[in-house]
Amino acid sequence: MTTFDKVYAAVRLIPRGSVATYGQIAAAIGNKRLARVVGYALHVNPEPGVIPCHRVVKRDGEVSSAFAFGGANRQAELLKAEGVGFLDDSHVDMKHYCVRALPLILEE
DNA sequence: AACCTGACTCGCC
DNA sequence: AGGCGAGCCAGGT
Question: Fewest beta carbons less than 10 Å away: which of A23, A73, A82, A97?
Fold first, then answer.
């Protein structure tokens, strides 16, 4: 199991209607410093329909401007469709919709 | 094969 | 309190 695979596994665990930060994904993998790698992993291999990349946001709750699977605006729409509240067009209401606890990926 | 960079985050000044 | 640098992994040049 590569680091990227762990990232994908963690992202898939994000409950519908909630979002997680790159840091939380990284923490779920075992190293919160991997936040950067998390973003890169999704960037290079965002398996369409399998990995809900749209549920991954920055620690502020702001969606990444580099979102490229349909536009950052598209990401906001998908989240809203799942019931995720927004503070504004690009900021998710973290204190209410950010996943509380993400399972730790123990795979290697 | 080594170096640079990239959807980030945290710590120190 | 805000800005800058370091750390992590993988892929491309």
Answer: A73
Tell me if residue A53 is catalytic: yes
| The one catalytic residue among A53, A79, A102, A105 | A53
Per-residue pLDDT of A3-60, as tens digits, reads: 999 999 999 999 999 999 999 999 999 999 999 999 999 999 888 889 999 999 999 9
Query: What pTM does this model have?
Result: 0.93
